[in-house]
Write a structure and sequence with these properties.
Helix content is 25%, strand content 31%. It is built from 7 helices and 13 strands.
Length: 259
């Protein structure tokens, strides 16, 4: 997963690159070795999973419900998370508005990285808190440093694993996942844990580049369709609420516990 977010070069055509979400970049050697060891130690869980040669070199040899899982990038590329053009590229103001947060909400930023969204959300939930989740200790260190920098007392860095985000049971009002879900090594296990963390009225906000739109200049493996997202969320007991299509290039999909 990321749950380390960063951004990278994405090949659009021979000789042409677009600087965008670093989830496409191959992991740096140190991070790759760590993640490979984590993957090796994980007990097998074949529900919905397949292991076969990667159809796309930007992905791994693991598939979930027919979808190849993309490579993740480590903390080495974290500077790209704070790039100056991100607000315009991703329409972050629109995204925050559409989340419709309440001042008392507990929000989990799953794949927080350096906390780009965590620290934007922090002042929107002054009587609540933000659980900034990442699986890399280096990102947790960055989150702690940025918490001091922004004086964001209601942001709590949380070290997760590739199978468990370590969220409180029935204690989260909104789980936000921005451009990270398609990289999760164990999406079923993570999302089952996410479901268990939701309050009775809790929501999941899943943000992914639109696979249905060929004009979105992102490699196919780093996009998701609403249909595929609904299939994968349904498999863990999350029902589709709506897809908000107000962002420049991404779906903003909302889910809740199935009734």
């Amino acid at each position: 997963m990321t749950i380390a977010f960063a951004r990278s070069w994405r090949l659009l055509a021979p000789g042409l690159f677009l600087l965008h979400s670093a989830c496409t970049q191959l992991p740096a050697e140190s991070t790759a070795a760590t993640l490979a060891e984590q993957r090796r130690r994980m007990p097998p869980d074949s529900t919905g999973y397949e292991t076969r040669p990667p159809a796309d070199p930007n992905g791994i040899s693991r598939y979930y419900l027919g979808r190849q899982i993309a490579h993740v990038m480590g903390h080495e590329g974290s500077d790209w998370l704070e790039r100056s053009g991100r607000k315009e590229e991703e329409g972050t103001d629109i995204l925050l508005r559409e989340l419709k947060l309440k001042p008392t909400d507990v929000v989990a930023d799953l794949g927080a990285g350096t906390g780009y969204f965590s620290f934007l959300i922090s002042p929107l939930v002054p009587k609540g808190k933000v659980l900034a989740v990442d699986i890399q200790p280096e990102m947790i260190a960055s989150l702690k440093a940025n918490k001091e920098r922004y004086k964001a007392a209601n942001v709590e860095p949380v070290l997760g694993t590739v199978q468990n985000p370590n969220l409180p049971a029935r204690g989260v009002d909104l789980v936000l996942i921005v451009d990270a879900y398609h990289e999760f090594d164990h999406p079923r296990e993570i999302m089952r844990a996410v479901r268990a963390s939701l309050t009775p009225t809790g929501r999941v906000a899943l943000v992914e580049y639109r696979a249905e739109d060929p004009k979105v200049p992102i490699k196919r493996i780093h996009k998701m369709s609403v249909e595929q997202a609904r299939r994968e969320m349904s498999a863990v007991g999350l029902e589709f609420v709506e897809s908000v299509e107000a962002l420049p290039q991404q779906h903003l999909m909302f889910f809740r516990r199935a009734k």
